[in-house]
Amino acid sequence: MTAYCIWDNVEVTDPNKLEQYKQGVLPVVEKYGGRYLVVGGAFDVVEGSWPLTYPVIIEFPSLEAAHRWYGSDDYADWKKLRQSASMANAVFIEGLPVNADAA
């Protein structure tokens, strides 16, 4: 089942480091089957009071693949760089199949 990693970059504390992260992390994400679907952009909260700031969504082939990427030695230095450059909220979500007949 497909999985999605959703980040909200709440605060950027070091824009230069975050730019370095953005320039170098893509090959590591792709190595684990991931692909970026959303990086920033305009958004409208249409229900509730979600205090979204700067959303990022990465799709992986499975929840297992997402966790392998996140916990990998390949990503460890990139994760450390990102965390030193920003504060974020993050969640992994497994996409369940939707039964079109039930919708």
Spatial strand order of the main sheet: 2-3-1-4
The figure for the number of domains is 1
| Global mean pLDDT | 93
- For the secondary structure, the number of strands is 4
Backbone CA Rg: 15 Å
At CATH level 3, the topology is Alpha-Beta Plaits
Along the chain, the helix and strand elements come as EHHEEHHE
What is the percent of helical residues?
Answer: 25-40%
Task: Give the low-pLDDT segments.
Answer: none
Count, helices = 4
Instruction: Indicate the CATH class.
Output: Alpha Beta
| Structural class label | alpha+beta
Biggest beta sheet attributes? 4 strands, antiparallel
Distance between the termini: 19 Å
Beta-strand proportion: 25-35%
CATH architecture: 2-Layer Sandwich
Net shape = flat
Please tell me about this protein's structure.
The protein contains 4 helices and 4 strands; from the N terminus they run βααββααβ. With 103 residues, it is an alpha+beta fold. It has one domain: Alpha-Beta Plaits. Strands 2-3-1-4 form a 4-stranded antiparallel beta sheet.
